[in-house]
TrEMBL record:
Source organism: Actinomadura fibrosa
Annotated TM spans: 182-203
Protein's name in the database: Uncharacterized protein
Keyword annotations: Membrane, Transmembrane, Transmembrane helix
């Protein structure tokens, strides 16, 4: 007697995270990760959807946490994947990698969505606004077609106030997650208040610098680091080589007059940084050195951008350092007080928002490791006599990193 077997039913592969979001967007143009549900209540979502119907193109809002090493690590990756899975052109609004700021990308047209989102991020009046209000403002700017003009207006105002402050580089007091903490005690002196205002303007100018980076101008685009932190050592070496080459070509193309003494000094610094980056690349023995190449390129391009700005009669562009704990994390958007284990000295360092949150939670941030005497140690715990990166904190603890590399200090840090 033979036994008939039931034909096996093939199991369908589980949908990917991008496919799940796309499926949700086919039902509603707003997708909010469950962990963020309280940030945008249902009533707000209904009002936003009604507002989006007046936008001349489809609008999709995708609000999910962007976490290094997680499913979504940067906003460009998120928007690109979801657009591909959904298969519909339009405006895609997400959080930016830098925190809870909103960014927008558009496929299939140009309705100034990107500029509208940046205008909202730069607008002081929107700093404490609820998420729904910021999304509504972006939609209104797109509807009215004034996203670009509003961005330019706010940028010009920031530039005007920055120049009026004398271009001072005072740092704003760090607020929650590294935001500007401008609450001064009653009766604070005028000098303190002026420094606070100057620091606030520097912080705003750094936001504007992020826009210029995204535009592919003189500053190093921050998407470089979204790739670098996921790269293998060989891939990182290739990327560092490309960035040094691109920086050299940029220097060759720059013909701004540098007769002004300050512009000339900044251009000299840019050229020195380029030379230091090439020297470091040639001698690089591992990831810490390759990260140093990107730091030097970043410093050089900051100096070049400032040289051009000064030569054209403008103000210097405040340099934006990279994360102290790991430069491959990208922008150091936050300032924290930090003390290494086993030490008593507390340092004020700048780092990415993810590392800042980790430090404030009394946990260990994701630190760049160096290989020393056969074991992995945090790069800043390497012997400063053998590591220029440990000695300078990749330029955060000292402002003469370029000079030290050019005079030969790097050789101490390449022995492994």
């Amino acid at each position: 007697m033979s036994t008939r077997r039931s034909p096996s039913v093939p199991r369908l592969a589980a949908p990917s995270p991008g496919e799940k979001i796309a499926a949700a967007l086919r039902r509603s143009p707003i997708y909010v990760d469950p962990s963020l549900a309280s940030a945008l209540p249902e009533a707000d979502r209904r009002r936003l959807i009604a507002r989006f119907r007046k936008v001349p193109v489809p609008v999709f809002v995708v609000l999910v946490p962007l976490v290094k090493g997680g499913t979504w690590s940067d906003d460009e990756q998120l928007a690109t994947v979801v657009h591909d899975r959904l298969g519909r052109d339009g405006v895609y609004i997400t959080f930016r990698e830098s925190g809870d700021e909103l960014g927008a990308r558009e496929w299939g047209g140009d309705h100034q969505a990107r500029d509208a989102a940046w205008a909202v991020s730069l607008d002081r009046a929107m700093d404490d606004a609820p998420l729904a209000a910021r999304l509504t403002r972006i939609a209104d700017l797109i509807i009215s077609g004034t996203g670009t003009s509003e961005y330019k207006r706010i940028s010009a105002e920031i530039d005007r106030r920055y120049r009026a402050s004398g271009g001072r580089s005072a740092e704003p007091a760090a607020g929650k997650d590294g935001g500007p903490g401008l609450a001064l005690p009653l009766g604070a002196g005028a000098a303190v208040a002026a420094a606070g205002v100057a620091g606030f303007l520097v912080w705003r100018r750094r936001r504007m610098a992020a826009v210029k980076r995204a535009d592919g101008g003189l500053l190093l685009p921050r998407k470089v680091f979204a790739t670098a932190r996921r790269a293998s050592e060989d891939q990182l070496r290739e990327q560092a080589s490309r960035e040094v080459l691109a920086f050299g070509e940029l220097l060759d193309r720059t013909d701004a007059p540098v007769s002004d003494e300050r512009a000339g000094a900044l251009m000299a610094l840019a050229l020195d940084a380029y030379q230091a980056a090439g020297k470091t690349l040639d001698a690089a023995a591992g990831v810490p050195d390759l990260a140093g190449v990107l730091v030097l390129v970043d410093q050089g391009r900051d100096a070049l951008a400032s040289a051009v700005a000064v030569a054209e009669g403008g103000a210097e562009i405040p340099p934006s350092p990279l994360c102290f704990f790991n430069p491959l994390h990208g922008d150091a958007a936050s300032a924290v007080d930090w003390r290494a284990l086993g030490t008593r000295r507390s340092l004020r360092v700048r780092c990415c928002r993810a590392c800042a949150r980790t430090v404030r939670d009394k946990e260990t941030p994701d630190i760049l490791m160096d290989r020393r005497d056969g074991r992995d140690v945090p790069y800043f715990e390497a012997d400063p006599e053998r590591s220029v990166w440990a000695e300078t904190g990749y330029g955060q603890l000292r402002d003469d990193l370029v000079h030290r590399v050019l005079r030969g200090d790097l050789r101490r840090g390449t022995g492994g």
